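Q: A reviewer asked whether we had any structural model of the full assembly, not just the individual parts. We don't, so I'm hoping you can provide one. Inputs are below.
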Amino acid sequence: MLRLISVAVLLVTWWIASLLVGGAKLPPPPAVLAAIVTEAKSGALFLNLGATLARVTLSFALAMTLGTAIGYWMGRVRLADRLGDPWLILLLNLPALVVIVLAYIWAGLTEVAAIAAIAINKLPTAVVTLREGTRALDPALDEMATVFAFPRGKAFRHVVLPQLAPYVAAAARSGLALIWKIVLVAELLGRSNGVGFEIGVAFQLFDIPLLLAYSLSFAAVVLVIETALVQPFEVRVSRWRSRAA
Amino acid sequence: MQLEAVITGKAYRNAAGEQHDVLDKVELSLRSGEVGVLFGPSGCGKSTLLRILSGLDRDYQGHVSRPSQARIGMVFQEPRLLPWRSVEDNIRLAAPGVDEAKLSALFDVLELSAHRSHFPSELSLGLARRVALARALAVEPDFLILDEPLASLDDALAARLRQQIATLIEGRTMLTLLVTHNLDDAVRLGDRLFLLSARPARLLRTHSIDRPRSARSEADIRAIRTDLARLDLPNR
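A: Here is a predicted structure for the entire assembly that you could use as a starting point for your response.
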């Protein structure tokens, strides 16, 4: 209920602001809604949202898998940590734009370049988070697994993974937020579809209703995914914590 | 099955780079079916010795021989249960071969039947200890290791758990090694007492109790305790 009121207040504010500055700069909500409907009817909206979502999914999966593996390895093996740390600091502080531009220059304006560039931007934060998680693993439980001769796979699944789960969730959360931001830039600079590309087109044509139509649709998708997938996952992995006596 | 250990020293370096001696010279041997007790003052290095004997710590001078195939069941000082698995899952993970009959019997003896599906965070320390004990016995160990299993429990609870441990030890032929700083527990549960000095621990003497555990009367226990007290161990 409170959420609905909050959304309504936002809409009213938007409407009043558009009356004050004029519809040319800030179109009122019905104009944007009309643009959304037009794009949806032609199918372009879903095509572009789908293309962006596919890129997000692939680069997110890639960055999380690699990031978890590398982070775990660096947390466990001292040598790997010392060798990998300078690379990590470099990657962490490299601006997203540099990575994207270089990827397009080196690999051409291709899908692979786009997805790799987005993944590389997210990778170092996942590595750092998982490395911290690995360092925080409880040695007492490792010893228990050793004494009771847990096979490696079993120890990883039942002893290590549950301890890493909150860190994986944190990395997924912050990583997804990062990817939502970067994917549009990558599309703007080098793809011919996707939300980022359409926003670029709308910017060049000064078509503000179209620009807002794509921005808001994209924001809605992000919101749905965050509440329907990410938050339930976080609750699930930490459910044993809440059942304290 | 037999455990033979000749340890000539163990030291570790702390973060500041200073060397600390934890163990001096300790020689001990134990046969299957016997309960050995490592008895010594708090902080003398008993737990370190236990980690060496269980194979967790390989960085020491000396030699430990124990059959390489020996299944080990260990009760650590803190229960070390997996907080994200239920009581039953904790036991089944460590002992995948345990059958329902054996598990029920263990839960019966340890009065855990009502707590099967609870998570460790829902258990008191006394209950968690008993779960750890059930886990150690569920693996059908050849070598059972108990590190201060009765510490920080109140007297009544400790006495009951001691009784349960005695019952469970009687039920299976295995090497049992118990660490305690409580003389009463040592005398009631042990067959061979390894009396250790203050840190760095060295073996002061080995004391065998010939009378079987179940036949020891209160008078016997008092007599053994008086005997041992006469040795004036803390001052040697």
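A: Points you may want to mention in the reply: The mean pLDDT of chain B is 86. Chain B has two domains: 1-70+157-236, 77-141.
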